[in-house]
Amino acid sequence: MLCDLAHNFPPKVAELLQRDRGLKRNFREESVTDMLMFSLVGLQPFGVTVDFPDEPTTGGDMEWVFAAPRDINGGRYLRIILQAKRAQFANTRGGYWYYQHLDHEKGKQASTLVRHASSSPGGMSTLPVYIFYHPSSALSPKTALLPAVDGVNLVFAHQVAPVVAGGCARKDKTVEAWRGSFMRLSDILCWPFLSVRRPTGPAGSMGFQITGGPASTIPFTPSFHPDFVAARLQRRLETAGGKFPLPADLIRRVSAAEGIPVELQRAIEGNTTAQDRKELVRPRVIFTTQISRAHPSYVRAVRRGSNVKE
User: How is residue 85 annotated by DSSP?
Assistant: First the structure.
C-alpha cells in the first residue's frame, strides 16, 4: 500500500498543480504537503502514524521518522525533515520551470534547515531533504543520463544550501539544473513486507487471514528498518550526480540512531500527550516496523553488505 502511494501520488500532484496554470494565484506547497499527510493517515494498519502539531512553527514542512521500536538497546530510528518547494513557470522566450523561492531569505532558510538538522534537534538524529512538487507540464521521463521529473522528487538539502547561500541566479533554480540530483518518492517509501512472529503489541504489524484452511493469521511487517533506509540513502548520496555536487563531508554520514526518545515512543504506541503535541513543530509521519537486528532478513543484508531488495 505504501509503495502504491509512492508511485500513484506524484501523478496526482502533477495533475493538481497543472490546474492553476494561467491563474493569478497558484496552489502553495502547503496544499500538496497536506494532501500527502492525509493520504498517509489511512495506512495506520501498515505501521504508519500521522501527527499534526497544535501550532506549527515550521523550519521544515514535515518530518518522517523511520522507527524500529522492538530493536535492542531501546530501538533504532532515523528522522528526515522535508522542506517543500513547488515549481513555477517562467513565461519568457522558450519558457522554463524553476523553484522561485529556493533561495528564500537569500538562502537563509536552506542554511537554517541544514544547521538545525545537524544539531540533532530534540536529541534526535536528523537528515534534511528538499521535496519538490511539479505540475504535469514540467514532467519529463527518465533518460539514459537523467532521472525522471515526477510530480514529486527529492534532493538532499546539503546540496541545496551551498548553492543558494547569499541568494542565487535564476539559472541555479531551474528544474533542469537540479534534475540530475533527483530521487523519487519511491526511493524512500517502497519496501517489501517480511514475515515476523505473531506480534504481542502494537508497533506496526499487519495480519493477513488465510482462507480455505485452518483459521490462522500470518503477521507481516514493512521492511523499512531505519538502518535499511539509511543504507539506501547512503547509496543515493555516494552516487548523487547532477550539476551541484555534494559536500565531501556529507558522504558516509547517513546513519540511524539508537535509543528511541520517550516522546517518540509514546507516539508509536498511540499515547501522544497534549504536551507532546504542543511541542511538535511540524506535521510528522512515523513509519514503524517490527524488524530488529535479530531478524533473518537483517542478518542476511548485513552479510551481503547491502539492504533488503528494493
Answer: E
